[in-house]
Each structure stands twice: as C-alpha cells, then as structure tokens.
Amino acid sequence: VFDQSEEAIKRVAFKFVDERSLMQALVRTVEGSIRAFVATQRQAAVLSLRGEIVLHVKDQLDETLESWGYHLIDLQLNDIAFDEEIMRSMAKVVASNNLKAAAENEGQALLITKTKAAEAEGNAIKISAEAEKIAAQLRGQGVALFREEVTKGMAHAVQELADNNLDPSLVYFSMWTEAIKHFA
C-alpha cells in the first residue's frame, strides 16, 4: 500500500474486483511500458538494455500503481524474449550483415590481389625494358667495336699494300667479291 491514508486504503480495497483483475491490469501495464520503451530502441540493443528497461518500467509503473493506491518496492526482469517473427527478422538482419561483411572482405581481398598483380606486372615490364635497353646498348657497342676493328684491319691491309707498292684498290675489289658471294 502506498500510504496509510484512508483514500489510499479505499483505492486498494475497491479499485479491482479481485486479485486476478489486479494481476491482469498489472501485467498489461508492465507489457505496455516495456513495449513503449523497446519501441524507441534498436532490436539488437534491446537484449543488452535490461537495466535501462527495468528503470523505465519501474518509473512508469510507480505512477500507475500510486493511482491505484499501491507502491512498487522492486521490479525484476527475468527474461527478454521476442516473438518468433521478430527473431526471424533479427536473424535475417544478422545474416544479411554477415553476407555484406563477407562481400566487403572478399572485395577488399580481390582489390589487393589485383593491385599486387598489376604492381608485379608493372615491375616485370620495367625490368624487361631495362634489360632490353642494356642489351641494345651492348649490341650497339659490339657493332661499333666490330666496325672499328674492320676499319683498323682495312687500314692495316691498305698500308701493307702501299708499303709493298701494290694498288690499294685490291682491298676494295676483295670486299666487293666477298659481298657478292653473300648476296647470291
């Protein structure tokens, strides 16, 4: 009983026909208060808000019970259970979020794989181009050395012919006949 006043005692004695009516009104009031609070929260958060739900319901219930002549000393919330449809809905949300996270992770992995493959291909192209550049330089140096040696050889041959009082055009004739042999 809220207090010992005559008015409070009358309310307690005459507000409800029997104990069953009181319990039914009490259950409906508690359920309504819980539903009102839960409606303001996200489903996933409701399960972790047991303390906040109890405080909210106790505040709401205290006012109602006071008007009936009662006082609430303590309130305990034993179990939070959603109906089957809400549980299926929550399970779908969780499954959907898991699929979304998996897709995002798969996309990130694919992005990393493709990026690394592109980097590797780019590095391979750079290495190949650098090797080709060095090979071309070495070929050019080889051709230059070959020509230099040919020139030295021809100069030496012409000098030998001149020293022996022979016509140096013999070297040119020899080169011409050698070239004709390779063309044919």
Walkthrough of the structure:
This protein is mostly helical. The chain has six helices and no strands. It has helices spanning 6-14, 19-38, 43-46, 50-68, 84-163, 169-183.
Descriptive terms for the model:
6 helices, Band_7, Band_7/SPFH_dom_sf, mainly alpha, Band 7 domain-containing protein, single chain
- Helix/sheet category: mainly alpha
Total domains, how many? 2
User: Over the alpha carbons, how many angstroms does the gyration radius reach?
Assistant: 51 Å
DSSP helical segment count: 6
Report helical residue fraction.
Answer: over 70%
Low-confidence segments, ≥5 residues, pLDDT <50?
none
Beta-strand share of residues: under 5%
Q: Summarize model confidence as the mean pLDDT.
A: 84
Question: What is the secondary structure topology, with strand pairs?
Answer:
Layout: H1 6-14, H2 19-38, H3 43-46, H4 50-68, H5 84-163, H6 169-183
Helix pairs in contact: 2-4
Summarize the structure.
This protein has 184 residues and is an all-alpha fold.
